[in-house]
Amino acid sequence: MFPGETILEHSIRVSHAIMGRVPEARNKPTIALEESEKTLNYELMMFVIEILTIQDMVDGNTLSLTVGGVKANNLNNLYLRKGAEEHFKLFAGLQNRVCTNLYVWCNGYQLDVKGKGS
Q1: What's the CA gap between 62 and 94, in Å, rounded?
Q2: Which residue from 1, 19, 97, 104 has the least number of CB within 10 angstroms?
């Protein structure tokens, strides 16, 4: 997609794990769950990719273009039916900051995305 550019290895971070269950097993006691009924999600997830060869000076600092995204499961109802709307934040810019509650600051492009899975 970016021929001739130097792209660093992506970084992925996740927060604490949430042990869950498929919607059909919602009313089963935990001890009675079968392995196929258990799920594993993470409350917060983030990825970032830095493109080293696309740079600019910002406040006297040389910064590289950074592209990334965040996902917070607290914005979604995990027990809704399959295909329910999911929320993501995507960003691209030279200065990007993401705090622990996934609020994003960016000097470039920031987008809130909602999508439905199948």
Answers
A1: 9
A2: 1
Q: What is the pLDDT along the chain (118 residues), one digit of tens a residue?
A: 668 888 889 888 888 888 888 888 888 998 999 999 998 888 788 888 989 898 888 778 788 888 888 887 766 665 556 667 778 888 888 876 666 565 667 778 888 888 776 5
3-class DSSP state for residue 24?
helix
* pTM (2 d.p.): 0.68
Task: Copy the structure tokens of residue 72.
Answer: 């917070």
Q: What whole-number distance in Å separates Cα of residue 96 and Cα of residue 23? A: 36
Which is it for the CA torsion 14, 85, 102, 12, positive or negative? positive
CA separation for the pair 10, 51 (Å, rounded)? 10
For residues 16 and 42, the answer to whether their CB atoms sit within 8 Å is: yes
Query: Per-domain residue ranges for the chain?
Result: 11-15+44-116
CB 54 within 8 A of CB 94: no
Give backbone dihedrals phi and psi of 81, rounded to 5 degrees, phi first: -60, 160
